[in-house]
Amino acid sequence: MVDVATPVYEGPFDLLLQLILKEQVDIYEVNLSTIVDAYLIEIERMQSEKNLDLDVITGFLLIAATLVDLKARRLLPNQSDMDLDEELALWEERDLLLARLLEAKTFKDVAGVFSQLAEDADLSFPRAVGADERFADVMPDLLEGTSVKSLQRAAIRALTPRPVPVVDLFHVNPIKITVADAVAELLDELPRAGRISFRRLTADLGDRIEVIVRFLALLELFKQGAIDLEQPERFGDIEVVWSPGDDVDTDSILIDAYDG
Amino acid sequence: MTDEFIDETERAARVSEYKRAIEAIALVSHDPVPHELLAQLLEQPTALVEQWCDELAGVYRQENHGFRLVRVAGGIRYQTADDLTPYVERFLLHDQRARLSGAALETLAIVAYKQPISRAQVAAIRGVDPDGVLRTLQARGYIDEVGRDDGPGQAILFGTTDSFLEKLGLESVDDLPAIAEFIPGPDVVEALEHGLRVTPEIDVTTAGPHQDD
Amino acid sequence: MTDEFIDETERAARVSEYKRAIEAIALVSHDPVPHELLAQLLEQPTALVEQWCDELAGVYRQENHGFRLVRVAGGIRYQTADDLTPYVERFLLHDQRARLSGAALETLAIVAYKQPISRAQVAAIRGVDPDGVLRTLQARGYIDEVGRDDGPGQAILFGTTDSFLEKLGLESVDDLPAIAEFIPGPDVVEALEHGLRVTPEIDVTTAGPHQDD
């Protein structure tokens, strides 16, 4: 089975599920950029297929934001004196995410059962021969109820090349905004700025997704020890300070970010 | 000979003829034959017809024939015995019955249990754009449009087809295992809760290897 | 237990399996199955295969089943028992669900969209021997021979009939809806089947237990 040798993930839910259940890592250890990138890829794809569904996209964004929130809560200082409402809200979002992951996991397990059922059913071949020529006179018109559309579908079905199991060669189209790109931008911008507020840093970004991506990139840099984050007041603007430690090689940060 | 005996013999002869008729009809049908249709054609109660079908299936099994009479998609049909797959495949040259991918199976599972369901609802559950997979499943004939949503968008609603039942060898969607059986157990819930926990267990500054208990 | 006895039991078990395989193959075949083909598939002498077929037919007769195994056109096939004709006719007349099987519809679709087309070309596309289905479609008047290939084999070429067009309410085959735009290349097929895939990336700098390989 190719999929075992080369694990691939079908979208953000699947990725998150696998990371937590299989790899036994928690949200603090997960490189969030991967998951958020997965969401962005999906949204991008829906946009490109003109399938934009606001409800779905809002749902995706909410989950991405929840993840960011959860991780931020762990990374940022002052987590001990959290506002109670704020904390409750976070728990609520967390529960919602948990519910969705459980639902996704449920259907994943059902899919396994379906696979087994289909495999068992495939062992047996049905007779679909019909009556022999002795009954030609009374045979009903077999095209009765066959529409042009169903004929078209049958043609598509028959003429579509059969998928051959191969190692995953499918690469999604590059998306415009990735966390890695944002890290690269910040590595260019922050040394020059020295100290800058998050609000200013994201002032020229029109899209909420881009802001989220920037924020994730900052968390990445913070984790790598390249910057400090200061938040003097609760809900206040975050100050970003360029302060790479002696052992931090900014070039390798960039590489790490691109590698994930 | 008593009257009773005659009646008994005659009844047995009739039942035998009905069973033979069921065999003949199942043999010439392209699709699974519903018990109700058989009952109508034989002018006999459906419950009896069902019983006869089951008895026929039992006899084939007992006599170890190469074919079986199975209940599928709301009816009965003849199928080859499972262990003879290699012979039949060899005869049919190479059967290209398409295997469904994991993504297709998951989407199919969602549609099966949540039907009628819209594309957006599937997307919300799977967390990925399901368009390509839905199109594949529809082209294969496993799902189809079954209506429109009442809402403002009048979204297309999908449901499973008889072909889906045949693909999985099920008699009806009621035969699907109860979804409750698949709700992840406490261990999974706990693992997920742990993974998504709000309060860190480890100090941020010493985020070394993760210790699990 | 003597060696002879073991051999005898084993031989009986093998013969039983061969007979069951014959039943299974005859069950799914659209055409009479030649004894020679069966012999080839089972890797057994034709004379023996013929004998087994006759024995099977005898058992069905003896047990008074609603079907028979008959010799026709140099092969064997399942047929309904003659006395059950009224039931079968009644079924065929009443079966509102009678439609082409998925495989037959696909074959018809291929002929409709790719005509004129030879049997071999259809076989290449469907991946299975289309002979039986083509004959059924021809017998029903949906397709017919429309010419001969220029090539050395002078293969028969099939096309759809006027009756086919009438039944679908089409004026000419040019009115068939386009399909080219719906048929993805082989590279896209795999992707469609799997939906979007994302390669996982785990941050190795902090994720302790995860070992990258």
Q: Total number of helical segments of chain B?
A: 9
Gross geometry of chain B: elongated
Give the mean pLDDT of chain B.
Answer: 85
Biggest beta sheet summary of chain B: 3 strands, antiparallel
How many helices of chain A? The count is 10
Biggest beta sheet summary of chain A: 3 strands, antiparallel
Which consecutive residue ranges of chain B, at least 5 long each, have pLDDT under 50? 202-213
Structural class of chain B: mainly alpha
- Helix-residue proportion of chain B: 40-55%
SSE-based structural type of chain A: mainly alpha
What do you see in this structure?
- Chain A has about 260 residues and is mostly helical.
- Chain A is built from ten helices and three strands; from the N terminus they run αααααααβααββα.
- Chain A has helices spanning about 1-5, 10-20, 30-50, 55-75, 85-120, 150-160, 180-195, 200, 210-225, 250-260, and strands at about 195, 225-230, 240.
- Chain A has a three-stranded antiparallel β-sheet.
- In chain A, a hairpin with an 8-residue loop joins strand 2 and strand 3 (about 240).
- In chain A, helix 2 (about 10-20) crosses helix 5 and helix 7 runs antiparallel to helix 10.
- In chain B, strand 4 (about 145-150) and strand 5 form a beta hairpin.
- Chain B is mainly alpha-helical and about 210 residues long.
- Chain B is elongated.
- Chains in contact: A-B, A-C, B-C.
- Chains A and B meet through helix 2, helix 3, helix 4, helix 5 and helix 6 of A and strand 1, strand 2, helix 5, helix 6 and helix 7 of B.
